[in-house]
Design goal:
Length: about 140
């Protein structure tokens, strides 16, 4: 083989190896960072001491505001429910009967979920106010 051909072959091999390594790193990080939420039924069936995302609906008439940044409420999947104690910033759209995801740790002895982050789900039927007013009239 000529030196020029060897150099080209080496550069092409280096390029392919770099692309392969980069894609491998990206796919590995994506697969480890994907986190789905668990429902109250799943968490009660398989309790864990790891941090999890608890998802469901805020049960009607279960919201207790201790202070502006300290809440107690129940998350339900309409089969089971778990009491959540959360301290931190509360999203403006958070309310009862609304979808919610709480990130935190489940205390198996007291059956209380201690939340560290609260994500409220907005209504998927959102319409800008001017469009909603035109529909009403």
């Amino acid at each position: 083989m000529q030196p020029r051909t060897k150099k080209r072959l080496f550069l092409i091999s280096l390029f392919v190896a770099s692309i392969t390594a980069g894609l491998t790193l990206i796919l590995y990080n994506l697969s480890t960072n994907i986190a789905f939420f668990v429902t109250p039924t799943e968490l009660l069936a398989n309790p864990t001491k790891d941090m999890v995302k608890l998802g469901g609906y805020v049960k009607a008439k279960s919201l207790e505001e201790i202070s502006l940044t300290h809440l107690k409420f129940k998350v339900t999947d309409r089969t089971n429910e778990i009491l959540v104690e959360y301290q931190g910033p509360v999203p403006a759209i958070f309310r009862e009967t609304q979808g919610v995801v709480v990130i935190g740790i489940f205390n198996e002895q007291s059956k209380v979920f201690i939340g560290s982050q609260l994500l409220a789900k907005h209504d998927e039927r959102y319409m800008p106010k001017n469009v909603a007013d035109k529909i009403k009239n």
